[in-house]
Structures are given as structure tokens and as C-alpha cells.
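Render Fatty acid desaturase in 3D.
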Amino acid sequence: MSAAGASPADAARRQARIGLSFAAAIVAAWLAIHITGIFFWRWSLAMVPVAVVMVLVQTWLSTGLFIIAHDSMHGALAPGHPRLNRMVGATCLSLYACLSYATLLPQHHLHHRHAGGAGDPDFHGGDPRLIGWFRQFFRTYYSHGQIARITIVALVYTLLLGAPLGNIAIFWAIPALGAVAQLFVFGTWLPHREGDEPFADRHRARSARIAPTLSLLTCFHFGGYHHEHHLSPGTPWWGLPARRRDYQASAHQLGNASGLRPRP
């Protein structure tokens, strides 16, 4: 049976299988760089370019950890398995930056309920400027409790496991902060800011007109396909390009049936 003709149960199992496989790969790659960089890295001039590449890759993987947790919040990682979604999501947020899944879960659902307006914790809070909006975003997702947890982990790394503090900053703190910038710019600010063109619907979200590869590299498709995510929150990050094709095919069929020419 093809994926298109699969039963809902088969489709859910396939989604879980693919999603968990991607999640395992992202977590494994993140841990490999994290452990190598913090505990086994030996600095030399020749290794600086390698370290730069590792930090850039780790920044992207850190964004991926958050996106996996985000899929978990929608039950899109493993449909029909709420405990598994919660466990994987909480683990990814803890690895990424000691974030609390239980705290972020209701905030994110508020974002979907009140997207781009009052009541949306991701919105700019009255200051639409980039810096003001980012300050609001940062306050929403980062707390004193999280900073305390990061400090405890850093102390364990340095005092008990002998990790250099500089390595912790370079291979954990910098990628985490870089991922914050990716998530905010490509996953929040660009999709939800006011523009010259009005929003298409109540979701007040736009999808960036960029190539799928660039969409993947910037924010795991949450920039290039953000509107599609709001239309279908149960679609995982890796399924958003196909979701857009489905919407376009439906619009084409509707246009043909009504005698209207669909938009390109």
C-alpha cells in the first residue's frame, strides 16, 4: 500500500518511525559534537577552522533539538504516544539548554491560539522592533530556573569531570545562543511580523519564499513553511514541504472545478 493510500493507523506508524529516526540522528550527532568538544577537544591553530565548523553544525543541530521538542508538543513526533512525545521532547529541551518542557508546552499552544496578537507569548508585546521583540521572546523562553540548571551542569562538567570552562562556552553556550537567534528570526519574527501584504488568514503567519534546502538549513522548515505549520500543526517538520504540495494540488483541483485559474 502506498503512503498516500495508507490507513490512518499505518500513516501514524510511518510518521512515528520517520520522526523518531530523524530525532535519534539529530540527538546522536549533537551528543557527538557536545562530548567531543567539551571533554576531548585539544586546541591548536590548525584546529580552529574545524572548531568553527563544529560550532556552526552544532548551532543547527541545537535548533533541531528544539524543533523535535516542538513536534512533540503537537503530538507530531509519535502520533498516538503522548508519553513518548513528552519524554523525547523533554530530553531534547534539556540537552539543548536545560529548558522545561512542562513550562513551554502551554506557552506554545497559546501561541497557536492567539497567533500574532494579544495573548500570544511569542508576539512582540507592544514593541514591533527587532530588538524589542527579541527581548520579549527571550524572556518568554528563558528563566532564572533554567540559568540555575545550566550553572549546575557547568559546575559538574568543570569540577567533577574536568572539562575546561572555555570549551563549555564554545561548544554548548555559543551554539545554544545561535539557535535562539535562528528560532527567533526564522521561526518567529519573519513569519509573524507585519508586512506590506496582509496575512492570508487568522493564523497571521507567512511562509518565506525560499528553496527547500535553505528552509531546512535556516530553521528546519519553520521559516519556509510556517503558514503550513499553522494550518496543520500535526504535520512534522520534515513533512511540511509535502503538506504545501498537497495544499497546492487541492487549490489546483478546486480552481479547475470552479473554472478559475489557480495562482502559480
